[in-house]
Amino acid sequence: SSPKNKKLTILEVILKDRTGEIKINRFFAGPRYSNRGWQEFKKREYCTGAVLAASGLVKQGKYGITLENPELEVLDDSDGAIESMKVGRLIPVYPLTEGVDAGSVRRSILAAMPAAKMLPESLPEDLRQRYGLMGLADAVTNIHFPLDRDCLAAARRRLVFDEFFYLQLGLLKRRQTQRKAQASAVILPTGKLIEHFYEILPFALTNAQERVINDILNDLASSQPMNRLVQGDVGAGKTVVAVVAMLAAIQSGYQAALMAPTEVLAEQHYRKLVGWFNLMHLSVELLTGSTKVAKRREIHSQLETGELPVLVGTHALIQDTVNFHKLGLAVIDEQHRFGVQQRAKLQQKGEAPHVLTMTATPIPRTLALTLHGDLDVSQIDELPPGRQAIQTTVLSAKERSQAYDLIRREVASGRQVYVVLPLVEESEKLDVRSAIEEQEKLQKSVFPEFKVGLLHGRMSSADKDEAIIKFRDKETDILVSTTVVEVGVDVPNATVMLIENSERFGLSQLHQLRGRVGRGSNRSYCLLMPGSKSAEAMQRMKVLEQSQDGFFIAEMDMRLRGPGQVLGTRQSGLPDFALASLVEDQEVLELARAAAQMVIENDESLNQWPVVRDELERRYQRLMSGSILT
After folding, report:
1. 237 phi and psi, to 5 degrees?
2. Mapping DSSP to helix (H, G, I), strand (E, B) and coil, where does residue 415 land?
3. Global pTM value
4. What angle do CA 295, 492, 248 make, to 5 degrees?
5. Of 542, 483, 541, whose CA–CA distance to 515 is shortest?
6. What DSSP designation does 79 have?
7. Whole-angstrom Cα distance, residue 479 to residue 458?
8. How far apart are CA 347 and CA 356, in angstroms?
9. 230-278: per-residue pLDDT in tens?
10. Which tens digits make up the pLDDT trace of 275-289?
11. H-assigned helices in 278-336
12. Which residues contact 318 (CB under 8 A, 6 or more apart)?
C-alpha cells in the first residue's frame, strides 16, 4: 500500500487458518511500493496458499487483533519445522548503527558461533561446580542463541559472575600488595589516654561505634598498615571513632593528622578535638590556607620536634614545608573529595603510617564492594540514642504559605533556617542569579523582619566561610544556599530546611542536606518542594518522608536512578560492565566476592590458576595499576 509518508512502505499480509483471520502490517524504509520488481518478489514470497509462521507482540486494536513488529517465516509445509533465526525462538537484540540491520548482525554472530564453542575455560572446575556456573563456551553460545529462557538465565549468570569475579580478584590482589608493606607504627590498642577519653565523654558509645573502634584498634595493633574506610550516616558519630584511633597513636608515641576537604569542615573538627583534648592536657593545632605566617612557622617547628601530637587541616597538611617527627596515623575525612595523589602525599609524611578514611555519604554494599573492594570497610549503621527524627514533608506549590508560616514561627522562637536551591546544570551564571534573586525576594518581600544570608558556589572561599560563620554566630536568621551546605556546616540552632525543586536532587543528596538540621535538641523540619508532579518524582520524595536511614535511602536511590547517578556521573569510579548490574545482580556479586577471596587465600600469586591469572591481567591491568576506582 502507499502511505502518506513517501519514505515508508507498508506491506499488508492476510493470514487465515481454521480459527480465523488476522491482518499483519510490515513497515519498510523508503518508497518501495513504487518498485514493481520489489512488489512482485513479495507476492511470490507470500503467495496465496503458503504456510507461514508469524511471531510478534499481540495487540488488540480497533481493527481487531494484530501483531506488533512481526517476524514472518514461510514453511515448506504445514508440519514443517521452524528453522528461522527470528520466529518461534529467543533471538538476540544488538545495538545497531546506520546501514547495519539486525538480521545481518545475527547472521554474522551465528557464523562465529563454532569459534565460541572452542573457547578455553577460564574458571577451575571445582569453583564452577561450587557456585553452579555454566561453562564459558556454553555461556557465550547461549547468551546469543539460547535454547530456552533457563539457558539464557544460566548463561547470563555465568558471564556476570566473571565480570564481578575478576573485578573483585583485582581489588583483593591490590589489597594484598598494600598489606605487604610493613607498618612503621605498631600501636597499642589500650592505654590511659583512651580510658581517660571514655571517662570524659558525656554520652555512651553505640554498639556500632564500639564495633568499628574494635575493628580499627585491631588493625592498628597489626604489623601491616591499616587501610580502613568508615562509613557513617549523618550524625552517627564518626569523629569520636577517629579520636579513639588518634589517642591510641599518641599513647604509643606517634603523631596523628586529620585532613578535611574544606576550611569549614577542618575548623569544625578542630573545635571538637580541642574541647576533648584540652581536658586531657593534649595540644592540637589547625593548619589551613588562612593560618597566619607566624602561627604556621610555630606549627611546623612543633611538628618536627614531636611536641605537637595532633594536627588538623586542609590540603595545607600536604605542603612540602610540613614535616612530622613520627606520623603514625593519617585520618582523611570525606576521602572521595581528595585525589589519589593528595591522599598518597599525606601518607608519605610518615613511614607507612596507618590510614583511616571516613565518609558521611552512605552507599549501598554493592557499590562499596565495587568501589572500595581493596579497603576494609566498616559501617556505623546506628544513630546515637535520643537523636530526634527530622519531620520531613513533601509540599505542593499551593502549600508554600504554610512553609513560610513555619519558618516565621521558628525564627521568631530564636531558631534558624536553610533555604536550599538546586544547581542549574545548564549555566553557573543562572545558578548564581537564581540564588541572588531568591535571597532578595525572601529578604524584601517575605521576611523583611529577619536577616537573610546568601551562599553559592561562585563565591570565593573566604566569602563562603564568612557566610557560614555569620549563620553559625546567629548574625543571619535564614541562609539561602546552593548545595555547598551539604557537608560540614554544623549549626545546632538550625531547625528548618526548605529545599526548592527537590526532585532535581538525588535521594542520598537530599538526606545529606537534611542532616544539616536536627543537630540540636529542638524538633526539626525538612520541607521538600518539588517543581514536578510526576509520579516518579513523588515516589522518590516519599522515600524521604518515610525513612531516616541513610543506607536504606542510598539503596532506594540506586534502584530508582542507577549507581552512576547516585555517585555522580563525572569521575564516579565505576568500571564499565557489559552485562552486570549492581542493582539486579547483588547476589552474584556476593558470590563472586566470596569466590575471589577463596582463590586469593588459597594462592595469592595465582600460580595454581594460570588461566585465571592471565585473564585477570588481560581484563584489569588498569585496575591493578591503581588507575581506576580512584
Report:
1. 90, 45
2. coil
3. 0.70
4. 55
5. 483
6. T
7. 16
8. 11
9. 988 777 788 899 999 999 999 999 999 999 988 878 888 999 899 999 9
10. 999 999 999 999 998
11. 293-305
12. 259, 342, 345, 346, 349
